[in-house]
């Protein structure tokens, strides 16, 4: 029993030491130095984290649940923001035509937008990174086939590909499951339209890395190709991928908002920021501008913050700018 306890203690101590070493190396890195000396990066990261946490914990932060009929009163419909003459202190950003609190709908809508954005990026990376590694490492006919498919897809706008996939899914799937599958179809459509950037970037980095000494040494000692790709080359090509993923996240959120605004995104029962903007657009010219303007401002702030973080990360990971 004592020997097992000692072994458990030693393992835990090693884990703590390993974590401390990782944190120490991170705080001593050029990346952390660049972040600390960039006010724009600090503000953008803070805004991004604030929005993400607000969306995750919307059920605690939001004053009301805008999709709970028991908490909605039609008599509270179209109340302006609190700073306007007819504003109500209960509704910071006003209410919509159904009496729902705009601030609460933005928090819940941001959750859906971020979910679609993150899931789309992960899906695109899961396709693009392996294809880029295989294409860059093996070359030849494999590289030619993958890159020609990528070239064909690049000739079509991403929004058009998403429209096509959404239309095919709506035609194939039964009407009864359209709303249930809408989120999955949207993630697939946005993800499949964005894998090319990852594949082309990883391919170029892999073609450089595969000719370096450490890869050649791994080949000489008999390490399998799959192991070389995963353990040796992949960690050294992830820098540009992180930059692309950050920028692609903002683009995925914009694409989702565009599709939802056009009526082919997520259903009204689980609206995103794009859906909220579309719903409020019908009241824009009747003087009830806050129903569409407030979600639009929230979308702009979210995308701008993520883009600015991506710009900083691109510069920080660029060795020519160090």
TrEMBL record:
Sorted UniProt keywords: Cell membrane, Membrane, Transmembrane, Transmembrane helix, Transport
Membrane topology: Multi-pass membrane protein
TM segment ranges: 40-62, 114-139, 145-169, 181-198, 233-254, 287-313
Domain of life per record: Bacteria
CDD domains: TM_PBP2 (cd06261)
Coiled-coil ranges from the UniProt annotation: none
Entry keyword annotation includes Ribonucleoprotein: no
Principal location listed in the UniProt entry: membrane
UniProt KW Secreted keyword: no
Gene Ontology CC terms, in alphabetical order: plasma membrane
All copies of domain ABC transmembrane type-1, residue ranges: 110-310
Protein's GO biological process: transmembrane transport
Localization of this protein: Cell membrane
Family membership noted in the UniProt record: Belongs to the binding-protein-dependent transport system permease family.
Protein's name in the database: ABC transporter permease
Annotated source species: Hwanghaeella grinnelliae
């Amino acid at each position: 029993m004592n020997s097992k306890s000692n072994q458990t203690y030693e393992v835990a101590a090693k884990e703590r030491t390993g974590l401390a070493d990782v944190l120490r190396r991170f705080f001593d890195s050029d990346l952390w130095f660049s972040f600390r000396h960039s006010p724009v990066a600090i503000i953008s990261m803070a805004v991004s984290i604030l929005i993400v946490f607000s969306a995750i914990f919307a059920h605690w932060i939001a004053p009301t649940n805008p999709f709970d009929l028991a908490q909605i009163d039609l008599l509270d419909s179209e109340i302006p923001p609190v700073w306007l003459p007819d504003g109500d202190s209960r509704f910071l950003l006003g209410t919509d035509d159904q009496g729902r609190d705009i601030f609460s709908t933005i928090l819940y809508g941001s959750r859906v937008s971020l979910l679609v954005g993150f899931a789309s990026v992960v899906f695109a990376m899961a396709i693009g990174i392996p294809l880029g590694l295989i294409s860059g490492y093996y070359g030849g006919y494999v590289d030619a086939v993958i890159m020609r498919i990528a070239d064909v897809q690049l000739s079509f706008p991403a929004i058009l590909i998403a429209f096509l996939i959404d239309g095919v899914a709506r035609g194939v799937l039964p009407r009864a499951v359209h709303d249930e599958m809408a989120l999955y179809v949207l993630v697939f459509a946005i993800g499949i339209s964005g894998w090319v950037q990852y594949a082309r970037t990883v391919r170029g980095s892999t073609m450089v890395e595969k000719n370096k000494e450490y890869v050649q040494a791994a080949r000489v000692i008999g390490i399998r190709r799959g192991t070389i790709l995963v353990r040796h080359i992949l960690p050294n090509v992830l820098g540009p991928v992180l930059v692309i993923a950050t920028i692609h996240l903002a683009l995925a959120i914009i694409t989702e908002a565009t599709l939802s605004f056009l009526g082919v995104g997520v259903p009204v029962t689980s609206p995103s920021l794009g859906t909220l903007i579309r719903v409020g657009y019908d009241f824009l010219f009747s003087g009830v501008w806050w129903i569409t303007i407030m979600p639009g401002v929230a979308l702009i702030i979210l995308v701008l913050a993520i883009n600015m973080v991506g710009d900083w990360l691109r510069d920080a990971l660029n060795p020519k700018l160090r």
